[in-house]
TrEMBL record:
The keyword Heme is assigned to this record: yes
Upper taxonomic lineage: Bacteria, Pseudomonadati, Pseudomonadota, Betaproteobacteria, Burkholderiales
One function term, GO molecular function aspect: heme binding
Key words, A-Z: Heme, Iron, Metal-binding
Start and end residues of each Cytochrome c domain: 158-241
SUPFAM superfamilies (alphabetical): Cytochrome c
Protein name as catalogued: Cytochrome c domain-containing protein
Classification via InterPro entries: Cyt_c-like_dom (IPR009056), Cyt_c-like_dom_sf (IPR036909)
Organism (species): Roseateles aquatilis
Entry superkingdom: Bacteria
Statement: the UniProt record of this protein carries the keyword Secreted: no
Amino acid sequence: MPPSAALRAPLGDKPGLAPLTVTVLEPHLARDGRMPEVRYVGFEAGAVLTRVLGAGWRAPGQELEFRALDGFVSRIPVERFAQHRAWLVTARADGRAFEVDNHLQGERQVPLGPYYLVWDNRASKALQAEGGALWPYQVTTVRVGPSSMRALLPGDLAATYAGAADLARTHCLSCHRVRGYGGDKMPLDLDVVVKGYDAATWRRWLLEPAAVRPGTTMPALAEGMPAAERAAIAQRLYDYLRALPPGTPAR
Ligand code: HEC
């Protein structure tokens, strides 16, 4: 059983965990590719994780799973925490309500607490382009375990599709699943539903879901990226998902 910990108790009074004020470009408030700066109060993510999971969480090849109240799941390779600074924040620095209007998913006044994982994206164009896919909010538990790549890349698929599986994990598996692996916000198995799509219909749905189904809360894929790159990602996901053999491994 991988170690898992609830993130509920107030952390501020724990020794070695001093609250910080941090500034990020808020992807959930992106409008026309521009993100406003927001200041939050929170804690260095690595320090919190070490406190709740023990120092072993940093071992290479593992993955952290952040699970939210509404079933949203972010699985993030531990290596990313060595590459980029992250914080678990608990309030806005300006004292306003700890919530966002999530433009990406057409949701308003979404509460962010108890914990919201944010990244130091001000100096990184790559993080900015990624959007909010790996910014889970309403986080209540965190778990560390083996990488999902084994489930996502059965047989010899890794040779061809490792990159595509990584894209699926970043952009889709917070809400959906592949072979039973992923989030429950909108629990459907993409490797199954993809069989009902031709490539053009698939691309159109991923790139402009609101144009296909007005009012949908499915976010458009990586809106911060250039159109050609977005289309290429949609196609890679399509090819990968169609290549998966049937079958749902145990979770
Ligand atoms: C934030 C959550 C979220 C993320 C991330 C997300 N989706 Fe969705 N997806 C939804 C919701 C909600 C629906 C239901 C849409 C509706 O009916 O309005 C949906 C519906 C779908 C459907 C349609 C199922 C059907 O036939 O009715 C497909 C296919 C799909 N998503 C694929 C993807 C792919 C591929 C990705 C990654 C590029 C992705 N989704 C990312 C929330 C999400």
